[in-house]
Automatic annotation (TrEMBL):
Protein name: GDP-mannose 4,6-dehydratase
UniProt similarity note: Belongs to the NAD(P)-dependent epimerase/dehydratase family.
Keyword annotations of the record: Lyase
Domain NAD-dependent epimerase/dehydratase, chain residue ranges per copy: 4-235
Species this chain originates from: Selenobaculum gibii
InterPro entries named in the record: Epimerase_deHydtase, NAD(P)-bd_dom_sf
Enzyme class: lyase
Signal found in the keyword field: no
Pfam families: Epimerase (PF01370)
Molecular function terms from GO: GDP-mannose 4,6-dehydratase activity
Amino acid sequence: MKKILITGGAGFIGSHIIELLQKENCDITVLDNLHTGLRENVPENVRLIEMDIRDKRVIDVFEKYQFDVVLHLAGQTMVNVSVDDPFYDADVNIMGTVNILEACRKTGVKRIVFSSTAATYGDIEEVPIREEFSVNPLSFYGLSKLTVEKYLKLYHDLYGLEYVILRYANVYGERQGDGGEGGVISIFTKKIAKDESFVIHGDGKQTRDFVYAGDVARANWYAANTEYCNTIYNVSTNSETSIRELVDLLESASGKTIDRQYGERREGDIYRSVLDNSKIVTNLNWRPMINLQEGLRRTYDYFVKSK
């Protein structure tokens, strides 16, 4: 039985990972400060430790449970927060991760799977974006994630800690909060379910690659087990959807006509983003199973029931 720690496991992506790992009969521990994660996202039969990744007592948790693999999802995920408060973003995403890495090193963890982001690439004209493309983040959030990627490589080179970096496209699905990069779907879907209006930032022609959280969960599990480690993988659908097209699909999923209002573009936002997923398809035999129309239907149905 594989012993797995999920940092940030009470978040919405973590909740999807827990569902999958329970089916795989893993010994699961969740470490989450519940700042944005929810206790109800962690089943009662799963061990939950309420603790911040920056807490020096993290090492005690590692020593007690002797994890085989760490799935590191915990972090500051808001682009606007990183621009407003770079110190906080770096403290959580960089120093918090170093605290986790030190615990891995000192307790013999074999592998860490890191949840990174398409924000590391910045605004690249050539799409779809491949892993070997140059990186030029436009926000401190993207920069802090990229910095952690460099730490992971050095921890492998210096200490032998295996790693897999997963650069997510825009993740969405049931139980999603309003924060993070995929939060536009959560925000829009909740408001549609409540018959409320919402504002589209910019002209609505900006594009994203929306990937369903259940598919992201499988990518984490495959990354935890693959022999093709110590590298970076894009986790995406390899398809580009504009915000205007997204609203069209939400109209179809909800059966409602949506009043579209437009506001100013947000600072630090990438205009066009779609990730090439051929590497993870080839090496990990992973591919997205849920298309956007079906994923939006599931997400909308969830928020209608929970409104």
